[in-house]
């Protein structure tokens, strides 16, 4: 029996226990192409043999940059790791300058890219790095193709050397350096060992609800982020078929094609799915419209474990047949679970999607913790709305006196690459300081209450937790993004990026005399007045000192490319404040 202690053990474990003809599935030229467990391992070994012939040594760094998740990423991952080298995943959407920083800081000597757009950015900075060569997954003129390495490694004469190298890799060895996007300054390189991630995958796998027989999962969150990457190893351990989505814009089509049972999501995606459902509901009329809003009101009251009683469950079964079944059909019809992470999920959405038969497992973690710390699951009373589940096995949570969440366990990182001072600053003995604030309730559920660094004090000495206000307001369909500000000022205020797509539809339906440009929308007194209603509604739930007294609308769409957001869709608070300094001064003047 294969004991899984290193990341490359996962496919071998699958081959021995649950071999799968469709272990990894990617769409090429309009057709889903399956890679079996055996083919996955054979190709990974060919990559290892080729890299050996290229002179790759233990602890060499190899960068992988892909715009979409795909079979090749996973083959290369195993091919690199079983030589004792390290896989350096890089976010495809960061700038060429950031590529240069990560490539140089990690001292990467080879690089795999997915497409022309990524290659163009790499080529801009390649001369300033230690890169010996670049290989592409797509066929790109002027760039070596990944298949050249499979051909180079077709000769199995040095497989024995691969086996020797594999056997020398310890579970405590460095496996990967993941550069966190960071909301300020240069990204930090988080060093994760094989056992950091492997132990986390094994402990997390106990929470994944898989059905008997064939299981299909859809993977589309960036695999360069530890959240999705960890889940890929979990899925391999479980023997599921992993289908890689063609892109974020194709998720709807792909779910209909493959009918997944499970997928991971971020709250923003669920918000967008919900907004689309609500937009369609606006076009309904008569009995259909009344039925829709009746079902929705039921969903908003959903509680786990049939706590609402038999009459509620009877009504919910009718709502499921008449309304929610159509929601499931839009996502393939067989989706029963979504794992949510990366940011806080609105409790209302957790209730509604769970009521609709698509259970939400909300989890919590950081890159530095490989990442899973806690996660909810419907079985065994491990689900509570508004919480991020209970800690997984072998992870110890301690709440510091100031409310900060501290973590101890085999999943805590080795440290920040080339930055021992920063590493020391986040550790107290074996405990890692997350920077998040939270509390453990009497039942052992973890609740996140805010980000330690983001909490601020007004000039009147009152503490404000901006994320609480922001998460409440982001439930409004009129608001896409919001940042609450006011540190050292007399009152909290906000910068808001309207949901332009929804606002434009609203303008049309209401026949308001407003031009459809973002600038016209943001300067319209009608729109400002309508968003003020949303702010007023939110304010009712908070103390007077916490309430948002003024706000300004921004015509720009906050995005990764424009610098407002990190690649994981978190706000770069300091950068946003800097960008809109004039607006902020206008608010407070």
Decide which structural class fits the backbone.
Answer: alpha/beta
Give the overall pLDDT as a whole number: 94
What is the terminal separation in angstroms? 70 Å
Share in β-strands: 15-25%
> Which of globular, elongated, flat, extended, rod-shaped describes the shape?
globular
Oligomer: single chain
* Number of helical segments with 4 or more residues: 21
Low-pLDDT runs of 5+ residues are: none
What is the count of β-strands? 27
Order of strands in the sheet with the most strands?
2-1-11-10-12-13-14-15-16
Rounded to an integer in angstroms, the radius of gyration calculated over CA atoms is 25 Å
Task: Please give the largest β-sheet.
Answer: 9 strands, mixed
Tell me the helix content: 25-40%
């Amino acid at each position: 029996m294969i004991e899984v202690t290193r990341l490359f053990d996962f496919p071998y474990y699958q081959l021995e226990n649950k071999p799968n003809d469709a272990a990894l599935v990617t769409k090429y030229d309009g057709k889903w192409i399956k890679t079996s467990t055996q083919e996955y391992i054979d190709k990974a070994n060919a990559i290892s043999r080729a890299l050996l012939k290229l002179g790759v040594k233990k602890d060499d760094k190899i960068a992988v940059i892909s715009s979409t998740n795909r079979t090749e990423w996973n083959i290369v991952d195993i091919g690199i790791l079983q030589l004792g080298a390290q896989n350096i995943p890089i976010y495809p959407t960061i700038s060429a300058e950031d590529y240069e920083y990560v490539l140089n800081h990690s001292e990467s000597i080879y690089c795999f890219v997915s497409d022309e757009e990524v290659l163009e950015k790499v080529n801009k900075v390649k001369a300033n790095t230690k890169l010996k060569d670049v290989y592409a997954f797509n066929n790109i003129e002027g760039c070596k193709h990944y298949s050249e390495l499979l051909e180079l490694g077709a000769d199995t004469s040095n497989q024995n050397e691969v086996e020797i190298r594999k056997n020398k890799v310890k579970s405590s060895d460095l496996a990967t350096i993941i550069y966190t996007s960071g909301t300020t300054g240069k990204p930090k390189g988080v060093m994760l060992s094989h056992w950091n991630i492997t132990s986390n995958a094994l402990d997390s796998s106990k929470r994944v609800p898989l059905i008997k027989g064939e299981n299909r999962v859809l993977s589309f969150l960036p695999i360069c982020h530890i959240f999705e990457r960890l889940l890929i190893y979990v899925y391999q351990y479980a023997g599921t078929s992993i289908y890689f989505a063609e892109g974020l814009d194709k998720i709807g089509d792909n779910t209909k094609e493959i009918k997944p049972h499970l997928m991971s999501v971020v709250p923003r995606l669920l918000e967008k799915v919900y907004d689309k459902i609500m937009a369609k509901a606006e076009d309904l009329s008569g009995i259909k419209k009344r039925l829709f809003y009746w079902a929705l009101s039921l969903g908003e009251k959903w509680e786990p474990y049939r706590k609402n009683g038999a009459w509620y469950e009877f009504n919910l079964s009718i709502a499921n047949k008449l309304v929610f079944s159509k929601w499931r059909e839009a996502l393939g019809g067989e989706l029963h679970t979504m794992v949510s992470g990366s940011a806080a999920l609105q409790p209302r959405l957790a209730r509604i999607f769970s009521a609709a038969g698509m259970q939400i497992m909300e989890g919590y973690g950081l890159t530095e913790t490989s990442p899973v710390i806690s996660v909810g699951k419907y079985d065994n009373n491990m689900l509570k709305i508004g919480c991020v589940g209970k800690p997984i096995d072998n992870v110890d949570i301690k709440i510091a006196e100031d409310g900060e969440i501290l973590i101890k366990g085999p999943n805590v990182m080795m440290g920040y690459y080339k930055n021992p001072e920063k590493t020391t600053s986040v550790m107290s003995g074996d405990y890692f300081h997350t920077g998040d604030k939270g509390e453990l309730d009497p039942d052992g559920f973890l609740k996140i209450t805010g980000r330690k660094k983001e909490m601020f004090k007004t000039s009147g000495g009152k503490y404000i937790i901006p994320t609480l206000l922001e998460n409440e307001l982001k439930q409004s369909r009129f608001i896409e993004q919001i940042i609450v500000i006011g540190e050292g000022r007399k009152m909290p205020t906000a910068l808001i990026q309207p949901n332009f797509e929804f606002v434009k539809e609203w303008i049309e339906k209401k026949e308001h005399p407003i031009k459809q440009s973002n600038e016209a929308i943001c300067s319209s007194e009608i729109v400002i007045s309508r968003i003020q209603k949303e702010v007023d509604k939110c304010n009712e739930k908070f103390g007077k000192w916490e309430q948002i007294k003024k706000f300004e609308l921004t015509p720009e769409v906050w995005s990764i490319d424009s610098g407002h957001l990190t690649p994981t869709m978190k706000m770069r608070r300091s950068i946003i404040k800097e960008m809109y300094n004039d607006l902020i001064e206008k608010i407070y003047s």
